[in-house]
Structures are given as structure tokens and as C-alpha cells.
Task: structure prediction
Amino acid sequence: MPLETVESTSNIKAEAVQIGNPAHADFLPLSLPACDNATMATHHRTCNLCEANCGLVLEVSGRTIVSIKGDENDPLSRGYLCPKAYGLKDLYEDPDRLRVPLVKQDGSWREADWEEAIDFAAEGLHRVQEAHGVNAVASYVGNPSVHNLTALLAGPAFIRALGSRLRFSASSIDQFPKMLSAYLVYGAQLAIPVPDLERTEYLIVQGANPVVSNGSLMTAPGMKKRIRDIQSRGGKVVVIDPRRTETAKLADEHLFLRPGADAPLLLAMLQVLFAHGRVELGAAEGRVEGLEHVREMCAQFSPETVAEATGVSAADIERIALEFADAPKAAYYGRIGTCVQSYGTLASYLIDVINIVTGRVDVEGGLMFPNPAAPLSSKGHYKKWYSRVRDIPEFGGELPVATLAEEIETPGEGQIRGLFTMAGNPVLSVPNGARLDAALDSLDFMVSVDPSLNETTRHADVILPPRHSLENPSYSAVLLQLAVRDVAKYSPPVFEPSEGSMSEWEILGGMVEKLGELRAQGEETDRATGMACAYFSADPQTVIASLLASGPYEVTMDDLLANPSGVDLGSLKAGGLDRGRRHDEGAIKLGHPEIDGEVSRLRDELTRGRIGEVSFAAGGSDPDASFVLIGRRQLRSNNSWMHNCPSLMTGGDRCSLLMNPADAGRLGVTGGSRVSVSSAVGQVDIPVELTDDMMPGVVSMPHGFGHTRPGVRMSLAQDFPGASMNDVTDDGPTEGLMGNGILTGVPVRVVASESP
Ligand SMILES: Nc1nc2c(c(=O)[nH]1)N[C@H]1C(S)=C(S)[C@@H](COP(=O)(O)OP(=O)(O)OC[C@H]3O[C@@H](n4cnc5c(=O)[nH]c(N)nc54)[C@H](O)[C@@H]3O)O[C@H]1N2
Ligand SMILES: Nc1nc2c(c(=O)[nH]1)N[C@H]1C(S)=C(S)[C@@H](COP(=O)(O)OP(=O)(O)OC[C@H]3O[C@@H](n4cnc5c(=O)[nH]c(N)nc54)[C@H](O)[C@@H]3O)O[C@H]1N2
Ligand code: SF4
Ligand SMILES: [Mo]
Result:
């Protein structure tokens, strides 16, 4: 299929990064070979900084990245890239990026060689497990591990060998509600269908801002262009969000929704669909169990009954539901705003149900299941056991990270005393981060596999910094399971591994080997580490080759090497309801006691004028200056970890509180002045930015800032530290069904700040 060339839709030109930027050249470590007479080489790569998977063409000279451009031949991104792509060069050259292991001795860091550091790390974890049991060591794996092949493949094997069931990850402050819904409805936690953006004619985006985030659980680079394409084929895009976002501004219609009120809105839309006879199962016909149950469940939620709670008029609710049902091809997409709230699973489930009962699943232009070349499947499980302190159920073998601090703090049998972290910064990313910050200080031992000395890793006893991912091969094994087009792409390393560097695969392989030695008793070897060692004796490329061999196409590693921009496997394909591990016979199950429980909890709350314990009278006319706080992502920021990139930090402090001018007038604050935002758990001080884009009574701040804690080594980030939103979010209340963190709709008090 000939590739269309698509102009870059980013707001910066895809122009070359300046050659040999002198500001950074000074910082290049001396061990790197000089690049003076080196010849230029071209490398094709996938950007691994977010989920969009943009194809890049890198020109490199020796160890210097000379230019970064969008790859027009990439079958998925077709030339698109965003400003963060340039951050790759900054990250590679970052003088603060750790290159050698650090060991903490008497409270200060010293550099150590790999063998010493790995032994020290394994011995420390082993000591805690010997003294207090295997579950006394917990693990936390952060978001970038999904974007880095060697970390992705090594992490689970290491954690299995570690043997502790106390596993945490960024998934429980993110998409777990969508995964739990997929598990209940389709029978597998990764059975998440994606909008068929190439063909849909009616797209609802709820609780997502893909024009800035570049899409999530929907690998779809270049969203601006994709939205315009929907519109130019006569389609419509509707955004439902408490803020008029960058996506909403491109859309045909935007509806303000009160934070956390997704579930009542969706129940009312479902009620409309049943009441107006718009239920038609399409490809799902003959598979759906529990349809009558859903009809009864939503029957009481007429649009009129939820209008006040949602802030959306009854007429709009009815109209949008009917437009969606009547569009020839339609897809309802919900993302993080619908997840990180009290009714996260219920809202995610209701979006799944609306798509199912309008016949949008597994059909072109609706929601489709990608058919990846290297399939990963995971059925998952739920409620096999419960957390010690708060009795929250495991999901997929994990506990929600909102419970990590209490599991460390609370004495008794099963208390966490040791921690392994990789590619995460939970101090800035989990609700009530300040509490976790303090709890980490009390651990007996902590190991971090991370290239930065940040708010979290500063607590470690040893930091094992992996080599930069550009020195490793890449295959985006997870994100290609969620792509809006089936593609396969493998890239060999751009640079030879730096001298004395190790990948996550090698670091964790080394730790497993050492743990095995420590656990062996005479002739008797340890089974768990033995199996892991066998796995680590292969390499990531071999693992990908075997996944490809298990996949539905005859694509080999040789094919991928011969097609450096990627192999196009075509548009999404119907038949997904029969692919992968699902409920028996591909059944779609809509009736679940857990869901019924959430619906009655919601009904009770609504009668009390509350949702998720937040009064829906909050804000607006409330004389008490109370607001609800929501988050936002910014194009030049990536969670907590790209604030040390000079090319992204132009423009200085971006950590501001967006507020509607009417609210500001009521508080007597002006744009640029500082306010204090406080909640049940903490307080931050932050400048205000006034905008009509905010729903009255709602304020928004970005997360991942707050680089003010001592001991952090990120010089540029520390110059523009901002404040951490998660010093205000609360780890007390959590999502109703598996304890996902609540990061939106947080009740706060905002007052003019006393500090200048
Ligand atoms: N208030 C609020 N909080 C939020 C969110 C929100 O919307 N609002 N969003 C949540 C979401 S969706 C997520 S995913 C989480 C993210 O939460 P985390 O995953 O905990 O945090 P990140 O900021 O992504 O952490 C990145 C860490 O990975 C390291 N790193 C980067 N690349 C690599 C690599 O290749 N290998 C290794 N080993 N380490 C690497 C960085 O140095 C940094 O320490 O934050 C969540 N927190
Ligand atoms: N530039 C950039 N890109 C990123 C990231 C980044 O930090 N920076 N992070 C990456 C990560 S880890 C992820 S998970 C994805 C997330 O990608 P998205 O899901 O697109 O995340 P956001 O851009 O935070 O959009 C969430 C939207 O939900 C809205 N919202 C808040 N509360 C509610 C609510 O209660 N109901 C509804 N309906 N809406 C609500 C917010 O106003 C916001 O517009 O982005 C990824 N891409
Ligand atoms: S959209 Fe994401 S994948 Fe694409 S260039 Fe930007 S950060 Fe990289
Ligand atoms: Mo995320």
C-alpha cells in the first residue's frame, strides 16, 4: 500500500536540532568518543516518550544527535512528531543523567562499580526478605517502563523472581478502571478496543485531551490531523470535559461536565438509548449476556434526574445520545479523566456498554480490537486476595499504589520494609505524595533502577542507572496492541552501548543471579531465580522474535530489519471479538454484582447531593471559596520527568492554576497572582491563570512538578520547580472497585496567597 505523506501537525517545525549545541557539548561525559571526524549516520526509530509511537529519523554523528525529524514513511505516524521528540537529545545528553551506580553510605552518595552496586542491591533486598518474609519487599514500576523494551521485558521476570506479591505500578493511578471493565465485560484485562479513527464519522472524547497527550490506550500519533480528517469526511467530534481543552477547541461541540459526574451522565445516555429504541447489537449480536439487566440498571436515570449533578442539560444529554446512536459509524472514547475518580470502573464500563449496545464494537469506524504482530495476552484476575490495611482487592496481581504509604507505615505482620522501584517517581505521581515521601524514609532498604536522582530515588540506598534507551533496541510491544492501525516496527540501537553501561535487562539479570546465590542453600538452588536466570540468558530481540512467530502475520525479525520505518499491516480488522483469550465463546458479559453495587452507591450519593463525597454545589456560588481541582497535561511536559530538558523548558514556569475569571472575581484574585490551594491532606502555593475555558467552580493544575525537595539532582527542573498537585490529592478515598487513585475532582479551598 503506498504511504500517504502527511504534513507534520505539530506546532513546531520539524526542523533539525542545532548541530553541536555548545550549551550541552560541555556536559558530554569525557568517556564518550569525540565525534569530530565521525561520519553522519541515519537511524529510524520510534519515539518512546509517550504512547503515540511516532516514527523518527535521527541523523547522528558519533555520539551526537544532529537532527530529529518525523519519519514520513512510518505507517502509523506518517511524519508527525511533537516538541517532546527533541527532548530525546536533551535526555541523552543530560549532564544530570546518572551514568554510574550510586550507593548511599552514611547518608551521602558515592559512585560504585556495577558489580559492587548490584551485589549491594541484591543483598539488601535479600536481607529484608530473610528477616521479615518475601512480602516485606514491595515493587513499584512506573510508566516509562512500558516505553522501553528492555525494561518492559525484564521487569516482570525480576519481580516474579523476587517472589513478593506486593506489587504496585503506575497503572493504578491511570488505566486500571478501563482494564477492570475489559476484564469484566470481555473476560481479559487487555481486551481494550480502540476507536477506528481512520473510518469513524462520530467520535465522542470524554476525559481525554489527545491533542496534547497524543492519545492514550489509543496509539494514534497526530490527533489534530485525525480530527480534521473525521470532520472533512462529514463527521463530528464531541468533547465532554470540565475544561474547554485544546481537543475541545478543534472539535465540533464541547460540553462542560462536572468532575466525577461521568457515571450519571453515561447512565442517562444509556437510559435514552433504551427509551428511544436505539439498542442494536450489530457484530455483538448473540454474544451479549445481561442486556435486560442493563436496561433495568439505567431505567431510573433519565436525563432530567442527572442534569444538575452533571452540569449538562437534559436536552443535550438526550441529543448527544441519539446523535451517537444514529451516526453511521461512531466511537465513544473515554480516558484518564473517566478513570482517576471515585466511579472510574463504573464510568469505563458504561462507555464500553454504550459502544456495545449501539453495535459499535468490532465494526469499521467503531471500536475495534487491534491485531498486533507480536501479541501479548493477559487474562488477569481480580479479588484473589486483599490488601492488609484497607482490605482493597488485588487486580491483575497488583494492589493500588494509593495504599503503598499505609502498607509501609502500618506496623505488624506483612508490613513493607523494603522497596524496589523502576522507572517511576511515585512521590510526585501518587495521591498524597508527601505522605509517601515520608514513608519511604522509614524503609529498611530501597533499590531504584532509574537514570535520575529525583524526589523518589533520593530515598534509595542504591540507584542503578540503566543506559539510555537509544543504546538499546526498540519494539513497542505493549503500545502496538492498542494502535489505531496494525503495524510492526523494530529498531536496532542508535548508539553502541556507552562504555561500562548496562540495560535494565542486564541489571535485573545480574540482580536475579545474585539473589539466586544468596538464596541457595548448599546443593539446593532457588527455583524462582533459576527460572529467571534462564529467561535472562536470552536477549530482548529473541523474545520479540518469538512473539512475532506466535503472531497472526508471517512477519519475521528479518522483515522488520529490512523495513526500518516499520511494516504496515493495514487498517484495523473485524473479527476481534474472537481473537485472544476472552470469556468462553467470546461472550460479552454485562451483568456484574460489583457494577450493581457501584450504581447503588451512586444513587445514594446523588440523593444526598454528592458524587464521590464531593458536593455538587461546590464552587460556583459557594461563599466558602470551595472548588474542585482537576489535572491537565501540557505539550512540553511529560509526567514528572522531562523538566530537565532545555528544549522543553523554554518559557519557564508552566505550573499554574487555571481558573474561570468569574471565580477569580469572587475570590478577589487576578491573573498572575498567587493562591494557596489546600485539601484535606495538604496545601500548595501556585500562580493563577485566568481563562473562560474552565468550568466555573473547577480549577486545573498540571501534575509532576514540585521539584523543591532537597537532595534532588535535576538542575534545570529545580530552577522552575512548580508545586506538586499530588501534595493536594488525597489517598484516603479511592476508586470504588479496586482502589485506583483519585486524581481528579478533588475538593479544595482556594484563597489568595499570603506569601509574595
Ligand atoms: N495528579 C495527577 N497525578 C498523576 C496523573 C495525573 O493526571 N494527575 N497521571 C498519572 C499517570 S497517568 C501516570 S502514568 C503516572 C506516572 O507516574 P510514574 O511512572 O511514577 O512517574 P513518571 O514521572 O512517569 O516517572 C518517570 C521515572 O522514570 C524514569 N525513567 C525515564 N526513562 C526511563 C527508562 O528508560 N528506564 C528507567 N529505568 N527509568 C526511566 C525517570 O527518570 C523518572 O524517574 O503519574 C500519575 N500521576
Ligand atoms: N504532553 C504529554 N503527553 C502525555 C503525558 C504528559 O504528561 N504530557 N502523559 C502520558 C500519560 S502517562 C497518559 S496516561 C496519557 C493520558 O492522556 P489523556 O487521557 O488524554 O490525559 P489528559 O490530557 O490528562 O486529559 C484528561 C482530561 O480529562 C479531563 N477531566 C478531568 N477530570 C475529569 C472528569 O471527572 N471527567 C471528565 N470527563 N473529564 C475530566 C481533564 O480536563 C483533561 O482534559 O497522556 C500521555 N501523554
Ligand atoms: S507525540 Fe509522543 S511519541 Fe510522538 S514525538 Fe511526541 S512524545 Fe514522541
Ligand atoms: Mo499514564
In short: The domain at 176-372+587-593 is CATH 3.40.228.10 (Dimethylsulfoxide Reductase; domain 2). Confidence is low (pLDDT under 50) at residues 1-37. The CA atoms of residues 362 and 524 lie 52 Å apart.
